[in-house]
Amino acid sequence: RRLYFDTHALVCLLEANGFTTQQSEVVVSALVKIMNTNLDMIYKEMVTKVQQEIALQQVMSHIGGVKKDMIILEKSEFSALRSENEKIKLELQQIKKQVMDEITKVRADNKLNLNLEKSRVKELHAQQDRALTQTDRKIDTEVADLKTMLESHKLDNIKYLAGSVFTCLTVALGFYRLWI
């Protein structure tokens, strides 16, 4: 058996790193035994060239048999499969046509429903706009009434204030005359 490393160089390396000669030889001997054991196990599991050739010939003969069976099946079953395939294609075309008809019906129904819903929404918006306009008018009327009332009260307050001021002035002038 070949060893893939220099045992003497390994012994020298171990000695250079502090091992004794006997210790170095024991370590290298153990490594050689381990490698030989591993190689024995590997060789037991390996296939020889002759065995590989025999297995290849067996596989090739099986492949040849399968090819012959496939040709026979192809000739006998191919026409049956072709006719079955044609039947399935026709059925598929019929189903496709039915589905397209159904899709067209559903689309038409959806468009009709959508248009009806749009008109309902427009009518609802128109009603809401009318109600909003009426509410705006009522609010504007109420605001105008409140402004008028506010102006009226403002004028009344100015009148009362002017009257109170003149009354106070009159009373003050009266006291002033009395004192003078």
TrEMBL record:
<keyword id="KW-0472">Membrane</keyword>
<protein>
    <submittedName>
        <fullName>MCUR1 regulator</fullName>
    </submittedName>
</protein>
<keyword id="KW-0812">Transmembrane</keyword>
<dbReference type="InterPro" id="IPR024461">
    <property type="entry name" value="CCDC90-like"/>
</dbReference>
<feature type="transmembrane region" description="Helical">
    <location>
        <begin position="160"/>
        <end position="179"/>
    </location>
</feature>
<comment type="similarity">
    <text>Belongs to the CCDC90 family.</text>
</comment>
<dbReference type="Pfam" id="PF07798">
    <property type="entry name" value="CCDC90-like"/>
</dbReference>
<dbReference type="GO" id="GO:0051561">
    <property type="term" value="P:positive regulation of mitochondrial calcium ion concentration"/>
</dbReference>
<keyword id="KW-0496">Mitochondrion</keyword>
<dbReference type="GO" id="GO:0036444">
    <property type="term" value="P:calcium import into the mitochondrion"/>
</dbReference>
<dbReference type="GO" id="GO:0005743">
    <property type="term" value="C:mitochondrial inner membrane"/>
</dbReference>
<keyword id="KW-1133">Transmembrane helix</keyword>
<keyword id="KW-0175">Coiled coil</keyword>
